[in-house]
Automatic annotation (TrEMBL):
InterPro entries reported for this sequence: KFase/CYL, KFase_sf, TAT_signal
Ranges annotated as spanning the membrane: none
Entry protein name: Cyclase family protein
Record's keyword terms, sorted: Hydrolase, Signal
EC number of this enzyme: 3.5.-.-
The keyword Signal is annotated on this UniProt entry: yes
UniProt-recorded Gene Ontology molecular function terms: hydrolase activity
Pfam families: Cyclase
Protein origin, superkingdom: Bacteria
Cleavable signal peptide: 1-27
EC class (word): hydrolase
Amino acid sequence: MPMRRRVLAAGLAGVFGAAVSGRTAQAATVPPVRLDQLNLVNLSHVNDPATTNVFPGDPAFSLETIATIPADGYYLQFVREGEHTGTHWGAPGHFNTGQPLADEMDPADLFRPAVKIDIRAKAAANADYGVTIDDLKAWEKRHGRIPDDAVVVLWTGWDAKWGTPAYPNTGADGVLHQPGFSIPAVKWLIDTGRLGRRGGTGTDTFSPDVGTDETYTVSKLVYQRHRISLEILANLKALPTTGAWVLVGGPINRKGAGSTATIFGVLPPGVRAD
């Protein structure tokens, strides 16, 4: 293996070792990881105007073919959408004035250790369910401490509803009914360092907020410093409960609130979905 690749692989091994063990000091004992041994899983929906649920009030999403190979020698579409159409990431300035926007973030902000918390049963019983501190502590009792600066992903089961009216789950009063984090739970994640400076939240719904909370209090708490939110995630069955990382790719718009994204779960050797 060329020296440059060995150095990069060793660096990644240290990073992944720290995520799996939760202790940076142990990372030096983890053997080097070859880059071709990493497994990627796609956590993004395909953006299709026929199936994409758009958050109420956001711009309509459309794709228009503006060039074809027979007529122009190449194929091209014109995309019209809001920055947070479909699977996307949000920057702190999305909800907080003066906080970093997309072009002010660091690459490391978009590559974070991740844990998955499966609340599908509770969400099925109560679409307005908010994850509690007790839920988080019970999860840690079983799986270990959430790593600092991690992205905490909720698997609510809403990814299976994508492209249908059941996804926004709008009531007769026009209010969304989707599960999320309770305010005390997110405060606890922040106060204990688990979200840290550059962690965040993830969900297969529109937002980390419970849908009925139209004050977006959870979002305002999460979106600070260099923390991010990953929203409308797909294929969460393929994301392990612990040991994986999330890698966020998408256009970096000037003064962007984030962007539509292709989000990958990055699985080190030996880490498998449950």
